[in-house]
Amino acid sequence: MNEEQRISRRTFLDWLVAGGLLTWAVAFVAPVISYVWPAQKRGPSVQTVSAGKADEFAEWQTKIVAIGGHPVIVIRTPQGFRAFAAICTHLGCIVGWDAARHQIACPCHAGFFDINGRPVAGPPPRQLAEHGVAVVNGEVLVKSA
Ligand code: FES
Fold it and tell me: Which residues are CB-contacts of 110 (< 8 A; sequence separation ≥ 6)?
């Protein structure tokens, strides 16, 4: 082996440092890239759940259904069905229906929401998110978004 074919100590260390830096860069950047651009697209994000037959709901009758593990309150108003996220915007209690007031009520701190999901009394700071509702073949279908 002549002098040019032998790898010098300095060249070896240069390659070692470069390899270490490359390994570090891949280990650091790959998770960031996979977070920003997920490897695969998720399936349809809109889910539909049946709340039952429309003719089984009396006027102002309500029902809580679960969509994706989250409670949703479905209300039959004289104008049709409405549905709102049933998690209070104050501290996250499950809301219910106050039949006397015709309002959505939170039992934890006496928060109330009107039939449009807007807070009207108590501490809730924001309105409840509304879900789409459709009656198809007599069945009340509630959308996840
Ligand atoms: S959690 Fe609903 S009013 Fe406080």
Answer: 121, 122
pTM: 0.70
User: Hey, what amino acid is at 99?
Assistant: A
Pocket test for ligand 1, best of 84, 94, 103, 109 (most atoms within 8 A of CB): 109
* Ligand 1 mean position, distance from CA 87 (Å): 9
Could you tell me the residue range of the domain that residue 65 belongs to? 48-143
pLDDT at residue number 38? 64
Q: Are residues 31 and 97 in the same domain?
A: no
pLDDT tens-place string over residues 65-122: 999 899 999 999 999 999 999 999 999 999 999 999 999 999 999 999 999 999 999 9
The token pair at 45 is 């994000």
Please provide the average confidence, as pLDDT, over all residues in the chain.
89
Question: Do residues 1 and 65 share a domain?
Answer: no
Q: Is 118 in the pocket of ligand 1 (CB under 6 A)?
A: no
The token pair at 44 is: 């349809």
Nearest CA to ligand 1 atom 1: 91
- Give yes or no: residues 60 and 101 share one domain: yes
Q: How many domains are contained in the chain?
A: 2
Phi, psi of 124 (to 5 degrees): -55, 125
